[in-house]
Design goal:
This protein has 694 residues and is of the alpha+beta class. Helices cover 34% and strands 15% of the residues.
Length: 694
């Protein structure tokens, strides 16, 4: 009876004591929580579209601390780490009694510390709350913190904290930073030798730094490999082979790709720790190497900027703001992809596109390249010579100035600027000036990004395309009117695809154009294949002249090298739209065989106003029309030259809905077969063609 009573009293007392202790520990835990928020600060990372690291920024303390989880690390490394540092990590509650007892017995037996008893939880406690010196009090506090951490975090979270915070010498913290600094790679695939070194370094990170104490680092790695062989985490033969592997003797720089874009991402959202971009690291690496090598050959103070974008989505896949961000002699910190500069001749293709669209010319139309005076404006060719009579194709491929100005005078500078606005591009005119003929030769300011955006629309069959900013802005097609009609865009691309490659470069199947600004200040080259457009700018950021700098001689070779080093295979250019054909000069309508405009904007090949002439579709053409996404027949472009507006079009004798003052129109056939198209001008003159529609 008494013994039962004593037992009940004892149990009750123990329960009360346990409750009091638990309550006291809980109060202490709440009153003095572990400073886990200190572990929250990690380096800001800028990643490519596939999640690969482009650039990292040090923490406010100047440390490279990359957030790391067990999923980011080779599983073999995790097994070796736990086997070496904390074998019962998954079982204990923050303190390993077995390890504590073993360490105490070894200390009593040997009079010195033979092995430690720190668990990974205790090491995390020390890392988030460093203490000066090693004392019994500090150890007790570490034990208490380990218990607190275990109450708050899961084992996986504790392991992730260690992987992010473990010291590796200098300002390196965490396995990812160490792997990148010593091996130049992410820790997802580590060799046994590399894993053993990363397990060994955090115990004495400064003394064992391989870039300073190679022998100590090698000895520490050897002890880890020996233990792993004993514990059968790795085989003996594997451990021996790993011990023969060389240890890196220098520390590498962490990735610094896309420096300007990374800076922009951090400024845009400074609180975000991981910025995802649309860039592709392989492309970025190649383009940066091309820019750096090219600038080195071009001389001091010269910089290079490059943008590569996906024509189908508008996403920027590679962007180089300068030849070298850290080169002060080249003002490398200036992002030259966003600076307005004179584009030289790179806007000429859009002038020709409007002329094609209006039916003023075909590729084989003859145009004069002779001295001309446009109300006091006298353009001259780059080499101060003239070619005489040339075809439109030759004029654009040779980038002749006088023919381009003749066409711009016909289509209108204001209309050209309006087309640019359709692509959300607004070139900057000189102060207090309206659009004039000089814009065709570079008399405006435009950024490399905007120029690439214009060419993306040209490569996209004339549909304007909005480029993203490489960070968050959503790119894509711009709704509304086209930059150019598909047939006109194809004609321009077809001509540009025939431009000779620069010296030393092989033919790559791209369409491209070059440009040189006045005074040899800017050299440009923009080109595209079926999927990607790439733009290059070369010059001095301070706008100084560079003697001999030209688009063809300097920028074009960088363009071709950029396509080659991007790692992206060339895709064939867009096929010709249905019904589009190349017409020989002898087969052109008389009104399209030679281009010559008078001050009234009319063909001046005769002494009086010419009669209307249908220039597209040509007589007897066989036309295959595709279907829209809704399944409807695509419209056929109708183009005329000459005549007096307004114009009335008829298809098989039936008038089209409206008269028009423009020399272009559209007709949707009722079905296939032969059709007769007729146009009548305001004074009753008519022209007809007979075509077959498939």
């Amino acid at each position: 009876m008494w013994s039962t009573r004593k037992l009940c009293i004892g149990i009750s007392a123990n329960l009360v004591l346990a409750t009091v202790l638990a309550f006291g520990l809980d109060l202490a835990d709440r009153a003095f929580p572990p400073p886990l928020e200190k572990a929250a600060e990690v380096s800001t990372e800028v990643l490519d579209a596939d999640g690969q690291l482009l650039r990292a920024f040090a923490t406010s303390e100047g440390r490279w601390r990359l957030g790391t989880t067990a999923k980011d690390v080779d599983p073999q490394f995790v097994r070796m780490l736990i086997a070496y540092e904390d074998q019962r990590f998954w079982q204990h509650r923050g303190i390993d009694p077995v390890a504590l007892a073993r360490a105490a017995v070894q200390f009593v037996s040997n009079g010195r510390i033979v092995s430690g008893a720190s668990t990974l939880s205790m090491q995390v406690a020390r890392l988030i709350e460093p203490r000066e010196g090693r004392s019994f009090t500090a150890k007790l506090q570490q034990l208490a913190r380990a218990l607190q951490i275990e109450r708050r975090l899961s084992k996986a979270e504790i392991l992730d904290l260690y992987l992010s915070l473990a010291p590796y010498g200098g300002n390196l913290e965490g396995v990812r930073a160490a792997s990148l600094a010593y091996f130049g790679k992410e820790p997802r695939r580590l060799t046994v030798a590399q894993s053993a070194l990363l397990v060994a370094l955090p115990q004495l990170p400064e003394r064992r730094r391989p870039d300073r104490n190679l022998a100590l680092a090698e000895a520490a790695r050897g002890r880890v490999l020996h233990r792993m062989a004993v514990e059968k985490v790795v085989g003996e033969g594997e451990a021996e082979r790993a011990g023969l592997a060389p240890i890196p003797s220098r520390r590498l720089q962490l990735p610094t790709y896309a420096a300007h874009l990374a800076e922009a991402a951090q400024r845009k959202e400074p609180s975000v720790r991981r910025h995802l971009t649309t860039l592709h690291r392989r492309v970025q690496q190649g383009l940066e190497a091309v820019a750096r090598d090219a600038a080195g050959k071009l001389g001091p103070k010269v910089s290079v900027a490059i943008i590569m974008a996906d024509v189908r989505t508008g996403e920027i896949v590679g962007e180089v703001g300068s030849a070298d961000y850290f080169d002060a002699s080249r003002s490398g910190w200036i992002d030259m992809t966003r600076i307005n500069r004179s584009p030289g001749s790179t806007l000429k293709p859009f002038i020709y596109g409007l002329a094609f669209e209006d039916g003023l010319v075909s590729q084989e139309t003859i145009i004069e390249d002779r001295p001309a005076d446009f109300f006091g404006y006298r353009p001259r060719n780059f080499d101060m010579s003239y070619q005489g009579d040339v075809s439109i194709r030759q004029a654009l491929q040779l980038s002749l100035n006088v023919p381009a100005v003749r066409l711009l005078d016909a289509v209108g500078p204001a209309r050209l600027m309006m087309r640019f606005r359709r692509s959300e591009v607004r070139p900057v005119l000189p102060p207090n000036e309206t659009p004039g003929l000089a814009i065709g030769l570079g008399g405006v300011g435009i950024t490399l990004k905007d120029l690439v955006q214009l060419y993306a629309g040209l490569a996209n069959r004339g549909r304007p395309m909005q480029l993203g900013d490489g960070i968050q802005d959503k790119p894509g097609s711009i709704e509304g009117e086209p930059l150019l009609e598909p047939v006109a865009a194809w004609n321009v691309a077809d001509i540009l695809s025939g431009v000779m490659p620069p010296l030393g470069s092989g033919q790559r199947g791209i369409a491209y154009k070059t440009g040189t600004s006045y005074g040899y200040r800017d050299a440009w080259s923009v080109g595209f294949d079926g999927n990607y457009v790439l733009g290059v700018w070369v010059g001095r950021p301070d706008n100084g002249a560079v003697p001999g700098l030209t688009g063809f001689g300097s920028a074009a070779s960088i363009l071709f090298e950029g396509f080659a080093k991007s790692g992206i295979a060339i895709t064939p250019l867009q096929p010709a739209p249905a019904g589009t054909t190349r017409i020989a000069q002898a087969q052109l309508p008389i009104s399209q065989r030679r281009f010559s405009m008078n001050s009234s904007g009319l063909l001046a090949s005769t002494t009086r106003e010419p009669a209307p002439q249908i220039v597209y579709p040509p007589e007897g053409a066989r036309i295959e029309l595709g279907a829209t996404t809704g399944g409807e027949i695509m419209p056929l472009a109708l183009k005329l030259q000459g005549g007096r507006a307004p114009f009335r079009w008829l298809a098989n004798g039936k008038p089209l809905p409206e008269t028009s003052r423009r020399r272009v129109n559209q007709w949707v056939p009722d079905g296939g077969g032969y059709s007769t198209l007729t146009v009548i001008d305001s004074v009753g003159r008519a022209a007809s063609v007979r075509v077959f529609v498939d």
